[in-house]
Amino acid sequence: MRMIFIGPPGAGKGTQAARLVERFAIPHISTGDMFRAAVKAGTPMGKEADRYMKAGQLVPDEVVIGMVKERIAEPDCSEGFMLDGFPRTVPQAEALDAAGVGLDVVLVLEVDDELIVSRIVGRRSDPETGEIYHLQFNPPPAEIMSRLVHRKDDTEEACRTRLGAYHDQTSPIIPFYEARGLVKRVNGVGSPDEVTARITAALA
Ligand code: AMP
Fold it and tell me: Which residue from 161, 153, 168, 89 is spatially nearest to 123, judged by alpha carbons?
């Protein structure tokens, strides 16, 4: 299963991706997670990416494309993979195509902007378990509250910039894949279990 998962920031991709990769036993390749790891490790690429990420802007295509090509050439990707957060621009989609990477499905998770903003601003993650919470919609247990992390780009201002980037730069890749008959659209509004059920139905 070679799958691409597309959706605006805060659509619930992270939560659903974790369930899908378990079900299909494929590696979860999140370019956002790879950049956050590079920032934490203080690599030159991490330092460059951090400037864009903090502002909610996209990292330049050449940086992302090189990183993803290297990752999907690794042996654990031979039976498939889920790309989460890549491609995010038409040149990135074209680069994947040019590299001869065939795809089985492009899953698009749809949630409208105002709901996204309220989801993002209250989002917190647990660095120990990777679990994602929301202060109101999915409250974390009180005892782990102090270790939760609020992403630097999860402010309202950066969120609106990221939504702008999604509409301007990422959504044009949907028609690119629609022309190849690969797109399945799923409504991302509802509980995580409801959304998982819709994804399962869409992939059946
Ligand atoms: P995410 O965790 O997917 O929301 O990504 C967080 C940030 O990482 C984005 O706002 C971008 O700055 C950067 N990023 C992640 N994936 C890409 C990509 N495919 N192209 C450009 N920038 C990316």
Answer: 153
